[in-house]
Design brief:
This protein is mainly α and 90 residues long. 44% of the residues lie in helices and 9% in strands. It is built from three helices and two strands; from the N terminus they run βαβαα.
């Protein structure tokens, strides 16, 4: 199992909004993060989209971190190392 498996379109970050006010807040937050320089010149590509029908994940996906604590801990360790190496975040 390699680190940071959650890559690709299925795992892309999206902020779902259900009002103009939420969109304004999300866009301001995204702009603030981009201007902070924490990611250097790398653009923040998180999509801000209108909320639509929400489909709850299947039961076996619910509370994964509790049901598979060993796998979660291993993946969290890899993510933490990545964040520290590339983003300077501990």
């Amino acid at each position: 199992m390699g680190p940071l498996q959650d890559r690709g379109d299925n795992y892309r970050p999206v902020i779902f909004v259900n009002s103009d006010e939420q969109r304004t807040i999300a866009e301001a937050s995204k702009a603030q993060l981009q201007s902070s320089g924490i990611f250097g010149d790398t653009p923040i590509v998180t999509t801000i989209a209108d909320a639509t029908t929400f489909w709850e994940a299947e039961e076996y996906h619910q509370e994964f971190y509790k049901k598979h604590a060993d796998v979660y801990a291993e993946e969290k360790q890899a993510r933490d190392a990545y964040k520290e190496t590339y983003w300077g975040v501990k």
